[in-house]
Amino acid sequence: AQSVTQLGSHVSVSEGALVLLRCNYSSSVPPYLFWYVQYPNQGLQLLLKYTTGATLVKGINGFEAEFKKSETSFHLTKPSAHMSDAAEYFCAVSTGTASKLTFGTGTRLQVTL
Amino acid sequence: GAGVSQSPSNKVTEKGKDVELRCDPISGHTALYWYRQSLGQGLEFLIYFQGNSAPDKSGLPSDRFSAERTGGSVSTLTIQRTQQEDSAVYLCASSLVEGFHYGYTFGSGTRLTVV
């Protein structure tokens, strides 16, 4: 079985500040990891994914995430927050033996002036 | 179509009534997935289709829930005898081939409210 824990249901940062959204996973086999973003009243949009290869993954809108096997983490970062980054962010894991993704409960990012 | 289309976008129904939610995937996408998003519960997998067959329906919460897909395209999620705990946003996603690593494209969802 696989699971995802997102620490902090709400995160608030100032515009221009570092964004750090935490994700830890549990998986009995090598995981495939994803971050999705959801804007109000919209579906989920893929930000980035880790499948194999380089552990530092760059995504859209300036976001990146690093897969750290020793820490079972896949934290999402952005050096400088923008007002348009305000949304809900979901971390997800799949083990590759099934097609479904297991999602965390999400982190709502607020960006203040 | 250009994206995954879901209808209706909002549905209010009375407890005990049946509802049908529709998903129109991206043309050519063979895999289709249904998820449920409840407040504070994250996204919960319901069922997965490859073509018209459903190799994984392990997430359907009860026998009141069923889904079908026809012509390898449109899918319908049916909830019979709706209960208040069924209130949620139901999201559909499709992908080009079976497999998470290609990424899913999600629709905007159907917000179901059972009163």
Question: If you had to describe this structure to a student in words, what would you say it looks like?
Answer:
The complex is a heterodimer of chains A (113) and B (115). With 113 residues, chain A is mostly beta strands. Helix content of chain A is 0%, strand content 55%. Chain A has no helices and eleven strands. In chain A, strands 2, 4, 5, 9, 10 and 11 form a six-stranded mixed beta sheet that branches. Chain A is globular, with a radius of gyration of 13 Å. Chain B is an all-beta fold and 115 residues long. Chain B is built from no helices and eleven strands. Chain B has strands at 5-7, 10-13, 19-24, 31-38, 42-50, 53-56, 65-69, 75-79, 88-95, 105-106, 110-114. In chain B, strands 2, 4, 5, 6, 9, 10 and 11 form a seven-stranded mixed beta sheet that branches. In chain B, strands 1-3-8-7 form a four-stranded antiparallel beta sheet, with no helix packed on it. In chain B, a hairpin with a 3-residue loop joins strand 4 and strand 5 (42-50). Chain A binds chain B through residues 32, 34, 36, 41-46, 49, 51, 90, 92, 94, 96, 98-106, and chain B through 4, 31, 33, 35, 40-45, 48, 50, 56, 59, 91, 93, 98-101, 103-104, 106-109.
- Count the E strands of chain B: 11
Report strand % of chain B.
over 45%
Strand count, sense and barrel status of the largest sheet of chain B are:
7 strands, mixed
Question: How many strands in all of chain A?
Answer: 11
Question: What is the oligomeric state here?
Answer: heterodimer
Largest sheet of chain A: 6 strands, mixed
